[in-house]
User: Fold this.
Amino acid sequence: MTGPTVRVARLPHARDLPLPRYQTPGSAGMDLHAAVTAPLALAPGARALVPTGLRIGLPPGWEGQVRPRSGLALRHGVTLLNSPGTIDADFRGELQVILVNLGQDPFVVERGMRIAQLVLAPVARAQLVELAAIEDETERGAGGFGHTGLISGSGGGTRGARAPGPARGPGEPPARGRHGMFVPRSFAT
Assistant:
């Protein structure tokens, strides 16, 4: 499948870095490289805006999605904030990546390190129609935020299934883990 033609320009601080490319024939994303001029240390809980040294020109009707790399997340707890980040077709600034270290150890971003991936996707633009109410009912209705439960069982559903762990009483706030993130009570430390 052939995708769009994307114009790309390297900025001076990325002249020696490779252009993004697909690592395998089946890869969905092209790796983005860190164009830092010196090693950048991310302490646990810290975030930083990391330059890629690239500007791109997407054709109309396409967007770029900046996504985390699974290996960085698994091995180091390093991921992206605002993920996926959206690159609009009319954006012409430098691509930059918001990295965050959710791991327990400091992480150093080195020049040329593959820090994120860029996935291209077609964009549909909606036409909104304002109504006084949405009248049609669906099986899901207003259910959201985990309304189907966590465990799939035979018989086609687990509505209301909960993860093991102590129940939360009415008005009791969710548990907070390291760095203040909300976590299921069964995983709270």
